[in-house]
Amino acid sequence: MSGPESTMQPVFEARGLTKTYDMGEVQVHALRGVDLRLQASEFLVLLGPSGSGKSTLLNILGGLDTPTSGSVRYRGGNLSGAGDAVRTQYRRNHVGFVFQFYNLIPSLTARENVALVTEITKDPMAPPEALRLVGLEERMDHFPAQLSGGEQQRVAIARAIAKRPDVLLCDEPTGALDIRTGIVVLEAIERINRDLGTATAVITHNAAVASMADRVVHLLDGRITDESRNPTKTPARDLRW
């Protein structure tokens, strides 16, 4: 990497990450020596088939899991050596997560689902503001059962960004959605990255999503096999798959 970006301290810097799981007498190698950086305001897509190590890598970056070996540094501090309490505070204050399934509480409205996060973080945005950013200002008093799948996912995005995270980590955010709804969800993620400058990493097996990224990293069998930059980014609304 060259140019100004190479001199900036990355949000994340992972070096030599491995992750091994013991499954009875068999060892499963989910990651096999991964090096990765994520810069401030960058939109990164991690692309690869199921079982390639994408989710494991995202979980380690987000403090949900720890590597078997290697290191993760977050804004220069060693995250991989941190204890449970430190990693909990890190997740609470600095990272927003969006998963394939929305994990909303059925008995709470969209506004109340977002408020769950704003009540436990230091400098949150108001739930209506977060919902406005994902285009749901008219639906904030609806319950999950009254919302479509795409609307529920956008509530999940609003919940993730309401804590004003430094980084947004998205694991197959359109995996349960049809193309039209998926594009609406990707537009919301795109808007957060563009308007708030939130460093964003999206993992997917859908190659079409890669064209909206600043940088694309390909994983296979726990290793990074290729990395490239898009000279121009395709707006989410123009994606087809």
Provide an overview of this structure:
The protein is of the alpha/beta class and 241 residues long. It has a domain at 39-65 and 93-229: P-loop containing nucleotide triphosphate hydrolases (Rossmann fold). 27% of the residues lie in helices and 27% in strands. The protein is built from six helices and ten strands; from the N terminus they run βββαββαβαααβαβββ. A six-stranded mixed β-sheet has the order 6-7-8-3-9-10, sandwiched between helices. Strands 2-1-4-5 form a four-stranded antiparallel β-sheet, with helices on one face. The protein is globular and about 50 Å long. The model is unreliable at 1-7 (pLDDT under 50).
Fraction of helical residues:
25-40%
| Rg estimate, integer Å | 17 Å
Per CATH, the class of the domain at 39-65 and 93-229 reads Alpha Beta
> What is the H level of CATH, i.e. the homologous superfamily of the domain at 39-65 and 93-229?
P-loop containing nucleotide triphosphate hydrolases
**Helix/strand class:** alpha/beta
Multimerization status:
single chain
Number of strands: 10
Percentage beta strand: 25-35%
Number of helices, counting only DSSP H or I runs of 4 residues or more: 6
The name of the CATH architecture of the domain at 39-65 and 93-229 is 3-Layer(aba) Sandwich
What is the mean pLDDT?
91
Unreliable runs: 1-7
Question: Strand sequence of the main sheet, in spatial order?
Answer: 6-7-8-3-9-10
Sheet with most strands: 6 strands, mixed
End-to-end CA span: 30 Å
Task: Fill in the CATH topology of the domain at 39-65 and 93-229.
Answer: Rossmann fold
Label the overall shape: globular
